[in-house]
Write the structure tokens for this entry.
Amino acid sequence: MGFDLNEIDYVQSLADWGVVFFACFSVAAVVAFFFAPIAGGRRGRAKLYAAAGSGPLAPVNYVLAAAGAVGAGIWSWQNPEAVAGFFELILRGVLGRAGREMAVLFVGRPALAGVAAIVGAFGGFLLLPAVLGAVQVNLGRIWTIGVLTWREAVRKRTLFVFMVFALMFMFAGWFLSEPNLRPDALVKNYVIFVLRTLTWLTLPVVLLLACWGIPDDIKARSMHTVVTKPVRRSEIYLGRILGYTFVTTAVVVVVGVVGYLWMIQQVPRAITKGEVEIDGRNVRFSETLDDEIRVEIDRVRGEPDVYVDTAAGLRKDQPAVYDLYQRAHDKFVGELLTARAPVYADNLSFYDREGVPTASGINVGDIWEYRSYVEGGEGSRARASYTFENVTPALLVDTAEVVVDADGNETVERVRKLRLESSFEAFRTFKGDMNRGLLVQYHFVKDLRRQLADGVAGVAIGKLPARDFLSLRRDVSQGNFAEAAGQLARLADGYRSRQLKLNDEDSAALKRGYGQVAELFEPFGKAWADSLATAARSVANAAASKDDAGIAEALKTFGERFQEHAATLEEKVVDVDVPYGAFAIKEFRGNIQYVGRTLRVRGSTETLDLFDDLVHGGRLKIEVACLDRSQYLGMARPDLFIRTPDKPFAVGFAKALLGVWLYFVLIVVVGVTASTFVKGPVATFLLVFLVLLGNFGYGFLQEVVSGNLKGSGSIESAVRLYTHRNPNVELDQTTTREVIAGADTTIKGGLWIVSKIIPDLEVYWLAGWVANGVDVNWAAGLSYCVFTTLAYCLPCLLVGYYSLRFRELEAK
Amino acid sequence: MSNQRSRNRKLAYAGGIAALLIPIVVLGMPAGNRGQEGFSGILAQIRADPDHQLGETTLGDVDPASATMTFVLLGFRGLAANQLWMQADEHKQRKQWAELDSTVESITKLQPHFKKVWEFHGWNLAWNVSAEWDGVEDRYFWVKKGGKFLVKGTRRSSRYPELYWEVGRVVGFKIGRSDEWRQFRRFFLSDPDPEFNGGQDPEIAGIGDALARDNYLAARHWYYRANEQDRSVNQRMMATELFRSYPARSQFDYGGALHREGKFTDEAQQAWKDAEFLWLEEFGQEEFNSLRGGWIVINPSSDEQLQALTDKDDRIFPLEAKRKAVESKRKLTNFDYWAAKASSEKTENTKLAHQLIYAGRQLFHAGLTTPTTTFAVADADVCEKLDELEGLTDGQRKVLAAACEAGVVWYTTDPDAPELSEERRVKLKFAKSKLEVAVEADGPVVLTGDLAETLETTPDDLFADLLVLREAGHLVARSECEVVLRAGMVRYEDVLKSVKRLEEDTLSVEEGLMSVIYLRKLYDQDELPFPTEYPLKRYWDAEWNADALHGRISEVERMYYRDQPTIEY
């Protein structure tokens, strides 16, 4: 699948945005306080401060001002780079080399934090009145203005955009049903076409409407009439937004529904070949070049049955096969136009060829570092380990299985199985057997003993284990629990007699490790396990507080419990590794394996139950190995998932439409807001810039700001270009260079602010999920859209409200 | 006053606009219907001019979608194309093949007459994208995709000979010379896509209305089309003579591929005969305009023919200049080598040499590598001192001499021969199925029966003689593999010796070196010392002593490992 599930730190970026917003608000508050009388906007602004300083809420405002001051001070102390460069630049520019020293002296962190605190105080003081002022609105009046806006938009022939869509849908089928495409690619094209045309054709309409509404009103003086009515300016503003949202909703819903109907009507016709499982048998069908139908039905043994005939001929001579063909076609189309509901692994880790746990596999030199690779073959113990949480029998799906009895009769049985779908990638170091894909094997693993051994010594990938505990680990991993109890007693003695002392690493390792041990025992739900869990928990707590005496006591208790339950531990805490089948991978498509509840242990008649014996505390571990010697298998976390019963395609598609709608809402809100303080053309220009940057330049902007991009600031780059020096040549350490560096820091600081203001509009593009036949995930998909829109709505509402409120309508 | 000034200014602007419109109309007015040329603009006239051929229709098929897109984008076609190129690269890196495919499709819609788009993406799909896939069928799908993309290119931009040539390269070289050439060539005849119902994909195998029975023949067709186009619009990728030689070269590849696959049939021999004809008579007789010799043919039948051509270039170039030009072009195209190769390959003897070496390799793969009493060869030392040997009857001496000459005397491929063990019989049956073409088409290599006929004796007497010779150690027991391999090597050495040009050819010598490597591996398996004398030794020694890295031997050794079958039977 082409989308990345690696989540960004969303809360953090929201917080960044909040900081930027508060900073802007505070600066505006300062400007209002000092410059409003000069600029002529006296009354409203002065009143605002007067209102904030008196009345019942005044004490709260003073508290908020103090909070704003402290918050801004601390923040600028922690993030001086964004603003400091500016001050440095001025001083250096004026005073030259001496300016640098002065800059260090005067524009250090304290000075900066001081200025920020003052500005923050203004912002905090005004925040509450501003918010309260904005929320004092009448919903009825907003609704009325919204309806009027909708009528106006209809009068403006906005809905003519539907004609364009009608034309597109009428003829698009000609260009999309490319016969040489694979069926899944074909469906992808259809879905992406519908969502892309909807987005890009509606966008200009929405953008122009939003940006020109209020300026037009002001220009035509209709606004003058409206403001004399008993209606607040904020209500006009909100009404506008509501009205344009109506238009957007109408377009998205109508085009979405028509597009959906169009797709489910077009796609089945365009699909002419496929492979699908019907009643436990693989059925391959294809229309041939001679307009015949070829149907291949796999048998349990022997060659598949092949039928080739025209549709009419097949229907007449082989009605059963024709019926099967139709079922196969329908099912295949259904599998493409679906919303798979995957349960992804919560964690993916690796073991290297020696079997040592690592955070990632081998890099085989792909430019796209999405997948990590494991080496195959008997000599290699490399595996990828997927850990699924909350695995219950509810995840099983109904399947059909062909059973052959002693007389050779085939019957179809319904069985509930775990459906695992994978899309690994092969990397061959040599040609090998080219007639089949690389062989993959799943291992269902319950490694309680390994986890316990790692836990008691605090072993974790990339972390230091606790000193002195490694022999304990060996004993546990070998199952010598009685000896391990002795080791624990000795360790307890060591800590008591002060021969051993906890250092920082030990304490962190033990806290982590014994926390895991406690979690390991809890799911057993038995008295012995509970007592061990409690004892482990107290070791973890003692380690956290770095209390040598405490840990001695806790270890002693834990050792005693260990001794007491040694036999039970030996029986219950075991490592189980059940290899399951082997299959040749087919790249870049879903490889589905159905795993029954009952698994046979290799080399014995013993069977294990998947849920009772292999799932521990809702956690299922599946390790993936490659069986071909010296060949590599590439895996990423979304590459293996448990596929629960699919959801209807309409559900996924509706979510993608919701994403598009939220995108338009954002455009409407930002557009209307912009139009409250600038004129139509400027607002349009602003929005176009925002859309372009947010859609195509966001990643690049983030890269520039993060400083990971090779090369320096823009001024230095210009100098290097002019002087013909590449980035690897150091520039001379001169004052000029320092000035340039300072200027670049300032620019970068400004860019940092811009990067926080520009929304990441790519998050709204949910078509990738739907096109790949996957239901849109809330956490990794839809939530980004909802929160981004919300995050922009709130500050925009404030800005829009105040801009319109204080706008001089005559100043066109 | 100010009103009047403003009006005047506006009038001046309008006048300026009108003045500028006139040249635009004159230059850019689109062409009217036929017979109304007077109404079309200058640019339209230039486009329609047969010397310039710039009109959409003269450049190739007009695609309405493409024309619409270009129109809708106004002047931003370049920007959009640029963005799409970047997107295509991004899709490739992220392995989003469906997206890559549709993006590339969009690029061609925007720039249908930009040769590089077709060349680059055709190559990208056939070579790079196909290599990303693990399944051979998938790889073939993408190779075809690249080929089809280029075919489409030849339709949209029909004037570029390079595009036809590129199709030939994908259909011929990519399908016939990849690591997966065995599977690809099979797929060419029987496509794995069920859509073709076990038949050929007409978009790739189609030559006109018919289907090519071999990928190299399809490639030859495309090279012919490239040449045809090259006669009106010169290609700029290589020397004209080299470019024009490709149909014949593809025919060489066709013959070679049949031999590589062990198809030593009449068809293969005919392929080589055709190749010789195409090279000497068709390509060799094509007229080229050379820089220093004017019009020439590469393979002139006589000076008179060259002399006759002087008329064509107004007798500027004397006959001597023409002769020199011919010589230089012969070197450029390696004309004499290919001529020699074709004339050698078409003979029965060369075929037999290839066939035996091929059969030997197959026997090696089948594991028939341990010495057996059924097969025997003459000892090299014995052959050298044939006259000095004592205690032999004349009959036995004759048999031995014949053995020395043939390299092998006793060979059966009869799996039911009574002296065979059960295990060998199974293996031999397997090997025989692989050797079907080699053995059944021409019979066993040197049967005792044949020898009896040659030596004018009876099979029984001959058998008795052979037993005596073997008892005396003059004939040494060998494995089937070695016997056949050696027989092939002896003949192959004769071929190389008789056609000097082949000795200079890398591929020809490599085939010999490969057979020596197989022979060496045979001895290595049994941990026997490799004999000091063996066929093709001089070529091995020459490479071994060529430089510190032993010339091409290590490369051929790598080829040996690649030649090993991966499926054990």
Observations:
- The radius of gyration of chain A is 33 Å.
- Chain A touches chain B through 40 residues (CB under 8 Å).
- Residues 1-132 of chain A form one domain.
- Chain A has a mean pLDDT of 82.
